[in-house]
From TrEMBL, chain A:
Belongs to the GINS2/PSF2 family. It is found in: Nucleus. GO terms for biological process: DNA replication; double-strand break repair via break-induced replication. Pfam families: PSF2_N, Sld5. The lineage of its organism: Eukaryota, Viridiplantae, Streptophyta, Embryophyta, Tracheophyta. The keyword Nucleus applies. This is DNA replication complex GINS protein PSF2. It comes from the Eukaryota.
Automatic annotation (TrEMBL), chain B:
Keywords: DNA replication, Nucleus. Belongs to the GINS4/SLD5 family. Its main location: nucleus. This is DNA replication complex GINS protein SLD5. It comes from Cucumis melo. Residues 168-229 form the DNA replication complex GINS protein SLD5 C-terminal domain. It comes from the Eukaryota. GO terms for cellular component: GINS complex. The keyword Nucleus applies. Residues 1-21 are annotated as: Disordered.
Length: 211, 229
């Protein structure tokens, strides 16, 4: 029934979204010599001291944890860039600034595992939190535009974690709207979720609204 | 009508997916995401899974080899991490298929189209699952009910059709994006369009996320033109 929680709605856990983000590429500067790695997910290296190279985030963090490299913070994670983005984010009401699809997860992972590599870490962290807040407020406002004629929602420039957070609400709202716009579906839905309901009365059930 | 959650004029240009040339990991990740997000079971990615399994096997062998030959434990642990990540993806992919089979097995068994999407192992699983479930229902409940109410598929023998078969909710909404610009997506069902307002065909820009009902884009997901996430 509408309003009941559906496991189908919480498709991806926060951990799974983070898992996907760990495949994003970024630059590291190794401090040791190591041959190329021929991984199933691709070939990386060879690694030479002080020579920057690109690796997926999970590999960067693994090396960082063992003190084998420094991680180069991505360009967008600088105080300057983030201040710009925050301002633009505040100025533009209807749209979102373009940030990496996984900016929330990437920055969180770097704060957790490579704090000494992030210049002005506390400032950067609070900027990202502010950006998140401003964006979320905008998401909430634009969700108010969903009405009974909404049959699809376009979400431009929203990030992975943001989508994952709004998904249960938006999906459920759209589902409810769709269902109530199509009264013949209501008994069907009952039959699926509640097998005890007698399925015989559909015929008599009067449509709620004629269109 | 598509409501707009922020219609920025600049399109999203940054790389949405990590660019990995010629590995099977990205396709597996895609299959995993689609399978998790789609309400019904999708065609089994037989050749992809086959290749991944071979690579996993090869990697397991070489990791064993490395640890015996005394290679730097750091390197061994990195290979192990890579292996763990792939195995997680593969297991999660297969597991989400099995969950759907458990939930909708009666429906899948009735539908040729869906049944053909199963792998050999999944077919065995479905059969055993159905058998066990029927046995359990018979023993615990159905045999104690009046004669007319003992069918697993029907509420009573007066039901004309199988009305106790859970169906995948195709009218559920999913988050998706298209790789290319798509137009003329028909959001309304045939009969609905005939009876109601004329809806302008829906169009989808490349790489922009949409939340949309699954049924109208079902065939586009199956043909790989739209990805779910």
């Amino acid at each position: 029934m509408a309003g009941q929680s559906d496991p189908q709605l919480n498709l991806f856990s926060a951990e799974e979204v983070e898992f996907v983000a760990e495949d994003e590429m970024l630059e590291i500067v190794p401090n040791m010599r190591m041959d190329s790695l021929h991984l199933i997910c691709g070939d990386y290296g060879p690694f030479y001291p002080q020579i920057a190279t690109e690796v997926p985030l999970w590999l960067a963090i693994a090396l960082k944890k063992r003190g084998k490299c420094a991680i180069r913070t991505p360009e967008w994670m600088s105080v300057e860039k983030l201040t710009q983005i925050l301002e633009a984010e505040r100025d533009s009401q209807g749209s979102f600034q373009i940030l990496p699809f996984h900016y929330v997860e990437i920055s969180k992972l770097l704060f957790d595992h490579a704090r000494d590599d992030v210049p002005d870490m506390y400032l950067v962290r609070s900027l990202i939190e502010d950006i998140r807040d401003v964006r979320f407020h905008k998401v909430e406002t634009s969700l108010e535009s969903i009405d009974t004629r909404t049959s699809a929602v376009k979400i431009k420039d929203l990030s992975a974690m943001e989508v994952n957070i709004v998904r249960p609400f938006v999906v459920r709202a759209l589902q409810a709207i769709y269902k109530h716009g199509n009264p013949e579906l209501v008994p069907d839905q009952d039959r699926i979720t509640n097998m005890q309901t007698q399925g015989h009365e559909h015929g008599q059930r009067r449509p709620l609204r004629r269109r | 009508m598509a409501s707009n959650l922020g219609g920025a004029s600049i399109s999203q240009t940054d790389d949405f997916e990590t660019f990995t040339p010629t590995t099977d990991v990205e396709p597996l990740k895609r299959a995993w995401r689609n399978e998790k997000a789609a309400p019904e079971i999708l065609p089994y990615e037989a050749s992809l899974v086959g290749r991944i399994k071979e690579q996993i096997q090869a990697m397991e062998d070489s990791i064993e080899e490395y640890s015996r030959s005394g290679i730097d434990p750091l390197i061994v642990s990195l290979y192990q991490m890579d292996l763990d990540r792939i195995q997680f993806l593969l297991r999660s992919y297969i597991r989400s298929r099995l969950q759907k089979i458990e939930k909708y097995m009666l429906y899948i068994l009735k539908s040729d189209e869906l049944f053909r999407r199963l792998s050999k192992e999944e077919i065995t699983f479905t059969d055993r699952c159905r058998h066990d479930m029927k046995k359990h229902f018979d023993e615990s409940v159905l045999s104690k009910l009046p004669n007319n109410y003992q069918d697993v598929l029907k509420q009573s023998i007066t039901s004309e059709e199988d009305d106790m078969v859970p169906e995948p909710p195709l009218d559920t909404f999913v988050v998706c994006k298209s790789k290319e610009y798509l137009e003329h997506i028909q959001l309304e069902d045939e009969e609905e369009r005939a009876s109601s307002r004329i809806e302008e065909p829906f169009e989808m820009e490349a790489n922009v996320l949409h939340i949309i009902r699954y049924r109208p884009i079902k065939s586009l997901v199956e043909s790989g033109r739209i990805d779910l996430l």
